[in-house]
Design goal:
eight-stranded mixed β-sheet, Elongation Factor Tu (Ef-tu), domain 3, globular, 13 helices, single chain, 32% helix
């Protein structure tokens, strides 16, 4: 195997232009990147590339000013930030993640003082009154019990061990023929998928909320680096294996952010891709080059430096600096360019003000492949928080679209009856 990998690497290197080889050699030697950037810029490119693929602890960047008693219960005064001033239901994690509170509607907002007062719907753990800082999240609930659902704790066999997951049945008496597999985003956990479980259950789907490499629950990858979807999809395939072994006939993949990129890779590469009935993607990464260019611009990193950071991720010689066990093929994960190759029905939900993963490639994917892709734009939700700002609309859109996709394919009359006979909150085609 090592010989095969070496031959592939040598072949890839031989195809490169002398200028590109010189540039990468400059990185390895700490040189000048073909004379285009200096040593300081080389170091910046290395830093930029490593930041993209290295799991990091959550930063407590939300200031908590006070907790007070309101007319209807506790309220929290927060420093006004782009996240904390969006109305809806969110989470505030504090005390290094040991504390967790569900934060509700905005009571008042003072632009002059740069503070916002919000309702505290529930404190699941920790003492919010003692918190001074925390981080904001769209992962609203701590576990299935918080949404009134029973779950089985199951373990899925993956590379390096077992990955814990929650299995939530639509009908406790028997497995559903179609399962929803929830794939969370970069830096998140399986909590992220809890927002979609009730919709899946209304449609008669069993839900499997998985963990995958480097997320803090599943075994870490040997190199400790994200593959941006190029490696993580193997863990989703293992989850599909589990579903099929336990009664599923087909699956629907739900993916948030990088979980969307992982889901797309699974639909493209898995041996079970013919059993993936549909994809539901929330703020997905459709084009990593676009995302990396966006973040380079936001962080005022020169274009050339950002491009060389991308080059390091994709070439075998860059591994010595990035720590990757294998190069990441960003081109293979560019679904904007590969749009017509996507043959799995896909719903893409994306907020137009997402400043973390820009919505442009999502809209472009739908425009280039309208037969397979439906694009549903939201406003004012920022990144992966479309459900949080408008749960009724999110659930309605997903329920309606999935119901059509899951309806029997060979009998149009029966399909029409199925679509008309179920609504959000009522039993669906399987229930």
């Amino acid at each position: 195997m090592a010989s095969t990998n070496r031959s592939a690497s040598d072949a890839a290197e031989n195809k490169m232009s002398p200028r590109t080889k010189w540039a990468i050699a400059g990185f390895i030697a700490g040189g000048s990147l073909a004379g285009l950037v200096g040593a300081g810029s080389s170091a910046l490119a290395v830093y930029f590339a490593r930041r993209v693929i290295t799991p990091a602890a959550r930063h407590e960047d939300q200031e908590v000013l006070a907790v007070i008693r309101g007319d209807k219960g506790p309220q929290v005064i927060l420093a006004a930030t782009p996240d904390s001033t969006i109305d809806g239901v969110f989470s505030l994690f504090f005390s290094g993640g040991q504390g967790h509170a569900r934060i509700g509607r905005i009571v008042s907002y003072s632009p002059a003082e740069q503070t916002v007062l919000r309702e505290v719907e529930e404190v699941y753990s920790g003492n919010l009154s003692e918190a001074r800082r925390g981080w904001w999240s769209g992962a609203t609930y701590p576990d299935p019990a918080a949404i009134g659902l029973a779950a089985e704790d199951v373990n899925i066999t993956v590379d390096g061990g077992t990955a814990p997951a929650w299995l939530i049945r639509a009908d406790a008496s028997s497995p559903a023929p179609v399962w929803a597999i929830m794939v969370h985003g970069r830096g998140a956990t399986r909590l992220e998928g809890l927002r979609a479980v009730r919709t899946a259950r209304d449609l008669g789907l069993d839900s499997l909320l998985i963990s995958y490499r480097n997320d803090g629950l599943a075994p870490s990858a040997l190199d400790g680096r994200y593959g941006l979807g190029s490696t993580e999809w193997h863990d989703v395939e293992a989850a599909i294996d589990y579903a099929l072994e336990h009664g599923a006939k087909e699956v629907v993949l739900f993916g948030w952010s990088m979980g969307g990129a992982i889901s797309l890779q699974t639909a493209d590469l898995s041996k079970h891709r013919h059993l993936i009935r549909a994809l539901v993607l929330d703020a997905p990464v459709i084009n990593w080059v676009n995302v990396m260019a966006h973040h380079a611009e936001m962080n005022r990193i020169p274009y050339t430096v950002g491009r060389y950071g991308q080059l390091m991720l994709g070439h075998p010689l860059g591994r010595r600096l990035t720590g990757l066990a294998a190069p990441v093929d960003l081109k293979a994960m560019d679904w904007e360019a590969r749009a017509v190759e996507l043959r799995t029905p896909t719903l893409v939900i994306h907020s137009l003000d997402d400043d973390y993963v820009p919505f442009g490639p999502s809209a472009s994917l739908a425009e280039k492949n309208p037969e397979m892709v439906t694009f549903e734009p939201f406003n004012g939700a920022r990144h992966t928080k479309e459900w949080n700002v408008d749960p009724e609309r999110w659930e309605r859109v997903v329920h309606s679209w999935l119901q059509r996709e899951l309806a029997p394919r060979n009998n149009p009359g029966q399909a029409d009856a199925a679509v008309q006979g179920s609504a959000p909150g009522q039993p669906g085609i399987n229930g």
